[in-house]
Amino acid sequence: MTSMHNPAHPGLVLRDYLGDLSVTTVAERLGVTRAALSRILNGHAGISADMAVLLGAALGTSAEMWSIMQARYDLWQAQQRPHRDIQVFPELSHAA
């Protein structure tokens, strides 16, 4: 398993992309509520697939970039929480 560093919440990256644009202006242009956008920018909500598509179109990036960034963040967060031990299925020879 590869070790992943603590990735930034995609909302922080989005904040950089938006520069000096106001939350209100961006929310209006994206067609989302100011509250929904603020939750993402403050790291309290993730970027959904729909939001990734909107951001890709509005910012000239790919929707995949935002989705992958969110998935990496979510996975890292999940890996930091304690989990019970899971036994590997020995009958599956391809299991790592």
UniProtKB/TrEMBL annotation:
NCBIfam families for the chain: antidote_HigA
Record-linked SUPFAM superfamilies: lambda repressor-like DNA-binding domains
Annotated organism of origin: Paraburkholderia haematera
Keywords: DNA-binding
Boundaries of every HTH cro/C1-type domain copy: 21-66
Official protein name in the record: HTH cro/C1-type domain-containing protein
